[in-house]
Each structure stands twice: as structure tokens, then as C-alpha cells.
Amino acid sequence: MSEEKKLILIDGSGFLFRAYHSLPPLTRPDGTPVGAVYGFTNMLLKLRTEMHASHMAVIFDAARKTFRNAIYPAYKANRPEAPEDLIPQFSLVREAARALSLPAIEMESFEADDIIACYAAEAKKQGMEVVIVSSDKDLMQLVGEGVTMYDAMKNKAIGVEQVHEKFGVGPERVVDVQALAGDSSDNVPGVPGIGIKTAAELINQYGSLEALLEQAASIKQPKRRENLIAFAEQARISRQLVTLSLDCEGLDGVDALTLKPLDTAVLQAFLAENNFTSLASRVKNTFGGEIAPAPTTKPHAPKTDYRLVQDIQTLKDWIARATATGAVAFDTETTGLDAMTADLVGFSLSVEAGKA
Fold it and tell me: What is the dihedral of CA 193, 196, 197, 202, to 10 degrees?
């Protein structure tokens, strides 16, 4: 297919988390964490430069709660909160996409995967080639004629063969296998005792999830038979959870994703604001234009009075001040941001700004 008929859909939320876990922490001069933003911007610039297409967009999750929570309230309920230093970077990566002249798209009540599915379906109807930049297994159900995936981290294309290697079935039966096996990371229940390999064997034997459930009584293995009968409705609910929606009403059409020329002035301003000097130099060398100067105004630094409390009497004095004020800010100080592995070092108290 020609370049004029090619759409690239980038899984922005997946990119962000992979960048966060792949790179060391980084902060800009005002203290804002930007390590994940740097990695995200770097990868996005590489894709924009190297992947030739006429249409391109970055797709994000809007919020944790989606229409799937109405189907199954416990969906993704086991996921921990985002790391504290990642939260400020959510808005910055959207700015990064827009600075690279790319649409940053999200939609309330839908996951990024659903939006990608909707755009992929529309683009296919228009005869476009679609490349989904992601390694997310949940998107593999979309792979097929005219649609491939690309793992940018591993520089690896994902087609029908790779989907079959992963799930033991073709893309059209991936949701049936997922419905049986469940997914602990998303809290999709599935059927107890059935993993991916067994699920694939059953789906290949019976043809579909519904056919399997209708004939479950004929299965010879007692425990497997009992579980498929007892958890049939749970399997059907699981299939609903893993099936990507094609009903994203309100989305702009594919034409809105037409790739625009890069505005180097806008991009350089974003890079300067976040102190990404090496990226700024690369942009200049690749696209021309001037490197924007870094902000000259220093962030306001209020006067502070921080004291270390190492005896009971000083602590009692602080408690008395908090009682008199009627409100106190309290924060734990730990050896890391992972609540499951960090050790407690101490805690901090404040009753007014700048004094703690």
C-alpha cells in the first residue's frame, strides 16, 4: 500500500509506562519530574522521523474507570496507584505529543485500546494500512488483513504469526482464549484452573468460547468440566471485558489524524521548558531551526524553616502547635516510592507553608 494510505496509532499510555520503568529519574530545574517525559518524547520523535505515513496519532487512557467497570466492578481494581513522581508527567506527555504536531487523543469511559480499535476499523474501511505501535497483548485481537503491530522497544513487527505464537490461536479467537484464561493484571476472572495453553487447546478443539461452554458437559476431565459449567457466566463476562469496543461515538474521523508538518519553534520551546538540551540539538540538526533559550526566570523559592526532630519534647511541641492550629500536614519519608518494598525512614509535619 502507498504511504498516502497509512495510519500509525501510538499507544501513548503504554509508551509512558515503559519509558518510566526504563529510564532513571530526572527532574527539571523547578523540581518537576520529567524522566518519563524525556523517554516518551525521545521515542515519539524517533517514530515521527522514521515511520513514514500520512496519518498519525497518540492515544491515551482518559481515566481508570471505564464502561467495563459497569460490567464488572472489580475490573482493574487490583492495580496500584500510579507512582507519585509519575503523576505530574501525565499532562506533560500529552504536551509532548502536541509539541510534535501530533493529535493527543483520549475519551472519557474508554481505554486507549478501544480508541485504537475504533480508528483501526475506520481506517480499514477506507482501505488504509494500519500500524499500531504497542506491545500490549490486548491489542493483538486487531491484527489481521491491513493491521499490524510494532513493538518500538524491541524493533519487532507483530503479525498473525506472532499472535499465534503468543496465544495458540489466530487474532480472531484471542478474546476467547483470554476469556477462559483471565488476566490477573487487569483482574479479568476467567475460569479457574485454565491457563493460556489449555484455553487455546479448548478453543481450537471446539471452535469458539460459546461452543465450548455449550458442550462443557461432554468434557472428560472432571475438574475442568466442573469449572467450565460452574464459571460459564464468568467466562462470558470476561469475554466482554477483553473485547475492544468499536462504538467510540464522538471521536473525530480518521481525516483529523492527517500528519501535519513539524513546527520546530513549538517543539523547541517545549524542549527548552523541560531542559531537554540533547533532544533540542538533535531536532536542530535534523529539522533545522533554532534552539529555544531555556527559561530565564527562576521558580520562586519561599523561605523555609525545616527542623529535625530527635527528642520527645520537641515532638510534643510540634503536636501542641498542630493542635492549636487545628490542621496539620503529615507525610511519610521512605527509602523509595514502592509501598510494598520501601522502608520507613521517618515522617514530616507542617502547620504552615515553609515550616516543617
Answer: 80
Per-residue pLDDT for 232 more than 60?
yes
Which grid coordinates are listed for 334? 521512605
The band of 304, judged by pLDDT with boundaries at 50, 70 and 90, is low
Mean confidence (pLDDT) of the chain: 89
Instruction: Tell me, letter by letter, the H, E, C secondary structure of 62-121.
Output: CCCCECHHHHCCCCCCCCCCCCCCCCCHHHHHHHHHHHCCCCEECCCECCHHHHHHHHHH
Are 120 and 142 a contacting pair, CB within 8 Å? yes
Question: With contact defined as beta carbons under 8 Å apart, do 268 and 278 qualify?
Answer: no
> How many percent of the chain have pLDDT more than 90?
75
Cα separation of 58 and 90, whole Å?
A: 13
Please name the residue that has the C-alpha cell 519509558. 19
